[in-house]
Amino acid sequence: MVRVACVGVRGQGQSHIRAYAKMPNVEIAALCDVDESVLNQRLRDAEGLTGKRPAAFTELRKLLEEKNIDAIFDSDTKSLALAAGDLGLPGGKRCLC
Question: How far apart (Å, rounded) are the C-alpha atoms in residues 22 and 19?
Fold first, then answer.
């Protein structure tokens, strides 16, 4: 099972959630967005699609501390590119922007 996190879930991130929800052996483990109203809606969407509510983050730094995430998919093209440069991606995480 690959546990994924989606960052920036307003526009393209919503499409990512729908796509990952259909993939076998993929679990949407976390969602991250600075806009809490968008985040809460996408949490409900993901739970409706998968039957499981992902963890919620409004701060990218907190998400990066999570040890149970294998891959991070970034729809907010600035956030992870900046974080990877400033913070590095800990724990062997992979990022797709």
Answer: 5
Given the structure tokens 């991606």, which residue do they identify?
89
Measured distance CA(24)–CA(97) in Å, rounded:
21
Count of structural domains, the chain = 1
Length of the chain: 97
Domain extent at residue 15: 2-96
Q: At 74, which CATH number? A: 3.40.50.720
Quick count: other Cβ atoms within 10 Å of Cβ 46? 24
**Could you tell me the pTM of the whole model?**
0.83
Which pLDDT tens digit goes with each residue over 8-51? 898 888 999 999 999 999 999 999 998 999 999 999 999 999 99
What is the pLDDT averaged over residues 64-71? Answer: 87
Tokens of 81: 């590119």
In angstroms and rounded to an integer, the radius of gyration of the C-alpha atoms of the chain is 12
In the structure encoding, which two tokens stand for residue 41, read together?
Answer: 């809606």
